[in-house]
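Tokens as discussed.
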């Protein structure tokens, strides 16, 4: 899953792709590099990110989703209105960092035939990194995602459409993130594909002491480890490099 942020404050590409034209070019580059799906986001959800209104988010993402008809696109949003509009414009997946908890979100996805990623987070971008706290982070994240799978199925979303994600960096300390990566296999026991998104995140910066622009090797390592521990999808910025790393892993495993 290649990342296409259409936001002015994206933490890792500094809004390089805020214009639709630049984002469209980048999207096609990522497909050429081997991305299987593109995650299009119009509201940054990194710690401290400023909230974005529905219309502003729609204005950012719809031109891109429409221009990418024919390309598998995931819409990275928690807003049901944005989900509905992006699905109508051709998106085939909803990537919801809020696990369809918003009013109307379950219904927006249930009415479609789209896939959905249900992600765990503790708190919101404005506060989630202040005091992350868990008794047993792996058990609590698994328990939450188990509940969200059940809620999605109860709303009529078939299990085959569901992906889950522990939400690295969303209300987790470095220790929590590492524990979740170490025990990613327990998440895989829930019986649906697992998505892992660690690309260029601060957890990697904390370990390597590199700034966001110097975290490519760490991001590739993290993606490979996630796949080795059962992840079916990795959400990355550096598609070409990650594809090559996973080709080596797959060659060893074939
Ligand atoms: C902190 C830093 C939090 C960077 C979020 C980010 C994920 C996602 C994002 C993820 C899924 C960024 C990310 N991260 N969707 N969207 N899983 N499913 O790249 O880990 O800005 S936003």
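Sequence:
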């Amino acid at each position: 899953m290649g990342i296409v942020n259409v936001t002015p404050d994206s933490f890792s590409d500094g809004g390089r792709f805020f214009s639709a034209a630049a984002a469209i070019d980048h999207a096609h580059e990522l497909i050429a590099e081997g991305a299987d799906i593109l995650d299009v986001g119009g509201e940054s959800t990194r710690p401290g990110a400023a909230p974005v209104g529905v219309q502003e988010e729609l204005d950012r993402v719809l031109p891109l989703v429409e221009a990418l008809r024919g390309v598998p696109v995931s819409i990275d949003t928690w807003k049901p209105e944005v989900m509905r509009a992006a699905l109508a414009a051709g998106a085939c997946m909803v990537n919801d960092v809020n696990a369809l908890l918003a009013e109307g979100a379950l219904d927006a996805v249930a009415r479609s035939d789209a896939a959905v990623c249900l992600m765990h987070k503790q708190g919101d971008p404005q506060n989630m990194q202040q005091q992350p706290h868990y008794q047993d982070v792996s058990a609590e994240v698994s328990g939450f995602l188990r509940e969200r799978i059940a809620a999605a199925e109860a709303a009529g979303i078939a299990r085959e459409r569901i992906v889950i994600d522990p939400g690295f960096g969303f209300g987790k300390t470095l220790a929590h993130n590492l524990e979740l990566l170490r025990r990613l296999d327990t998440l895989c026991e829930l019986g649906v594909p697992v998505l892992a998104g660690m690309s260029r995140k601060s957890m990697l910066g904390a370990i390597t002491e590199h700034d966001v622009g110097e975290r490519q090797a760490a991001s590739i390592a993290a993606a490979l480890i996630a796949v080795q521990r059962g992840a079916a999808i990795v959400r990355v910025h550096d598609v070409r490099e990650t594809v090559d790393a996973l080709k080596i892993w797959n060659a060893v495993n074939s």
